[in-house]
Amino acid sequence: MGKDGASIPDEEWERFLRESEAGISGAPEEPSARSRVVARRLREEGGPPPGWRTHEPPRRRRGAGWYVAGLLVAAGLLVVALDPGRVVDWIGGAGGEQTPLAAESDRPSQPPADQGSAQLPTIKEPFRGSPALQWGNGAAGVYVPAAQATGWMSREQVAQALARTQEFLTASNLDPGVLRGDRPGKAIALINPHQQDVQGYLAAAFRTPSRENDPLLLFSRFAPTKARLVGDVVKTRGRITYREGKRGAVEVTADVTYVYPVVRAAAGSEEVARTIVRRELVMSWDDPAKVITETGTFSLISYKADTANGGCGNSTGYFLPEFRAERDAAGGGDGHAVDPYDRSTSMDTRMREGREGECGTVTRT
Q1: Which is it for the CA torsion 154, 302, 140, 170, positive or negative?
Q2: Are 59 and 321 within 8 A, CB to CB?
Q3: Element (H, E) at 205
Q4: Of 230, 232, 262, 354, whose Cβ has the fewest other Cβ atoms within 10 Å?
Q5: Reported pTM
């Protein structure tokens, strides 16, 4: 992307890569492949129905995966449900138009304020009562910094890497077809095909999804027979940052929260629930003179995912949001309370807050 914001043509990008390799001795290194370690424990929940005017946020799921030069370590799931009888405060009054927040160029100092509106979402106002009412729509809610020459890349090439990072976020978490359950082919095409562990995980995740090989750790997908999105807007808030990484690579981090309003798949369904997913993805745009890669692709360094209302003990490869009937049969969790809209803590802190496999509570959805 140049000064005018336009993307660099692929021909120019490829020419630069060829020139950067010229005269350099020694073969590039293929990202090393190492074994994956996965540990997950799940616990079923049960209990009394919620009280009057109680909004009981559905279960929260937590997972993390790590790729360091091909290494994947997927962390466990955290499943949560709100304690019965608790009245939840909400942002946004009647759920009408709100002044959009400024872009999140840095980590906020505190969670979004509670204003005590207790308004539930509707078909016409699916973000009613939620802090996301003031968030951006789709990719517009993700802050992208100005490009500067970093590592092996020029300013223009850093801009290109940032643009393709945005493409990946859109293709993996916002694409309508993917959200309806399609395979995220465009997103997968942006991942370095020479990361063998990563490619093996992706193949298994979409062939035979399991707790170990779970596509939801990287992609947002809803089971088309269970739930469908309300409208065509997904609210987002987050930011992209970058720095020089190993071997002069440009290391890009995307920390974004996505809010998906859904109803049951059955025609005429009107009860709106929300699934909230915060993802932190770290990717490496490698120097092809030092690492075996393909033009326009990145290597995964790490990822973490923290999900509210995606399904408890779910290994289907799709989010399975809960609605009132399911929540009526679920009890409170045994873990600490978490606000899924809170972006004031790092993902590392968020992942450490709960014990693996515990059932906790979310304060709002």
Answers
A1: positive
A2: no
A3: helix 196-207
A4: 232
A5: 0.78
**What pLDDT, on the 0 to 100 scale, is given for residue 351?**
82
**Distance between CA atoms of residues 69 and 126, nearest Å:** 41
For CA atoms 220, 225, 229, 231, the dihedral sign is positive
Give the side-chain half-sphere CA count within 13 A for 71.
Answer: 7
Residue 229 CA to residue 176 CA, distance in Å, equals 9
Residues of the chain with pLDDT under 70: 1-27, 30-98, 115-117, 328-336, 354-360
Chain position carrying tokens 């940052």: 241
CB neighbourhood size of 10 (10 A)? 11
Please report where in the chains the tokens 């590392």 appear, as a residue. 348
Cα 138 from Cα 121, distance rounded (Å): 19
Place of tokens 């608790």: 86
Residue type (1 letter), 2: G
The Cα–Cα gap between 153 and 343 comes to 30
The DSSP string of 26-84 is SPPBPPP----EE---------PPP-TT------EEEEEEEEETTEEEEB---EE-PPT
Q: Determine how β-strand 37-38 pairs with β-strand 71-74.
A: parallel
Give every CB contact of residue 228 below 8 A, 6+ residues apart in sequence: 180, 222, 262, 263, 264, 265
Structure tokens at 258: 């996505």
Amino acid in position 351: M
Nearest-5° Cα angle at 56, 91 to 216: 90
Quick check: 360 and 80 in contact, CB under 8 A?
yes
Q: Which amino acid is at 71?
A: L
Q: What is the pLDDT of residues 161-171, one digit of tens each?
A: 999 999 999 99
Q: Are 160 and 196 in contact (CB under 8 A)?
A: no
* Domain spans in the chain, listed from the N-terminal domain onward: 11-307+333-341+351-362
* CA–CA separation, 146 and 159 (whole Å): 8
CA dist., res. 146 & res. 249, Å (int): 18
- Rounded distance, CA 36 to CA 70, Å? 9
